[in-house]
Amino acid sequence: MAKLTKQTVDALKPSKVGVKGSYLIEWDQELRGFGVKVVASGLKTFVIQYRNAQGRSRRIMIGRYGVMTLEEARREAKTVLGRIARGVDPLEEKQAAAGDAITVAEVCDWYLAEAEAGRILGKRRRPIKASTLAMDRSRIDVHIRPLLGKRAVSALKLGDIEGAQADIAAGKTSKPRAGSRGGAATGGEGVAARTMSTLHAIFEHGVRLGKIESNPARGVRRLASTPRDRRLSRAEIEKLGKAMRIAEQEGEHPTGLAAIRFFLMTGLRRMEGLALERAWLHDEEGSIRFPDTKSGAQTRVIGRAAVDLLLAQPQAGSRFFFPADWGEGHFVGIVRVLDRLCAMARLEDVTPHTLRHTFASVAGDLGFSELTIAALLGHAARGVTQRYIHIDEALRLAADRVADEMADILDGKAAASRPYRRGARQSRGTDQRVPQSE
User: Fold this and answer.
1) 180 lies in the same domain as 326
2) 299: enclosing H helix or E strand
């Protein structure tokens, strides 16, 4: 056949192709390597057949007939064949471009796989913790993947990322809790800002390890979320304590009740307390030796009343002080128990972290310094002075004093207002001296 014409292309019929999956190509005899491919469905596509610099036969598509006219395809073919004559391989260019078009979801999948294998280092140049990785996976699956997963990383702009942040803050990726286990996916400014921090970190790892060329999240302005300063007043603690006593009589979950009381008496983070193992408690020392926490391995001092609460928990054949109802894990239902108690006590906006804030607030009301409170809470050291906080008598007395005070408020035994007097305390009928400062 001579030069391809519109009439010859229109005349090509699927019946000439045969069974599904087969095809035929009519070549243009004037422009060598240019032709039109017809498949059994009738679809016609303009193609170019060529050999690259290594002599390998290659074929690329340049357009679909109907979307592109024959003359447009011929002009494009001349341009491409001219570039091929100069040593360019258009198929290799196309494959390279596809590599540059790696999607956000693909980068996230790569990050999760590498982090799980311990090949990505996080804070303090240590492998990323399993708990951190679990939170990253949650943010990826709930927020990042639905909003940006299909987007090419190289095509993302700051406006795209900040737009996703706004959508998360507005609750567009929120989901109710599915089934009887697990939590609901929420939005809000705090969730949005933390998700953007996660995305930024993932891209930074990708750039550093050569997965992507640049981090499109650099320079993104993260939302300034309002700090959650909710803490219970003395009156609210008393209401909660009364609700706990009533709930205990009505058959509320004993492990949940004990855990809530323990958190108020120690200020531990939720997972620090729920996953607390019996082997970590040092009874005589009045401390818990965590092999790992948010701030690394730590020894945390707790009050004698809190130690007694732990020792009073049934063994139940579990390594945890607060075991799950079934299986070998630890108790996880504290949020639901706390919600029921707060509904009974008519308290609003109370979370397990509120209990930690409340512990710190009571410690502050008793006159303990920020340095002492930070040591009791296990905050990461921010200066040279805090490195000298260790288990001494002053810290033990502080932990005892706060735990005793909290127990008294919960049990309705504390005075309505008990101001702290420097150097003296009244604890369960015993006068003891408590140093105000380190």
Assistant:
1) no
2) strand 298-301
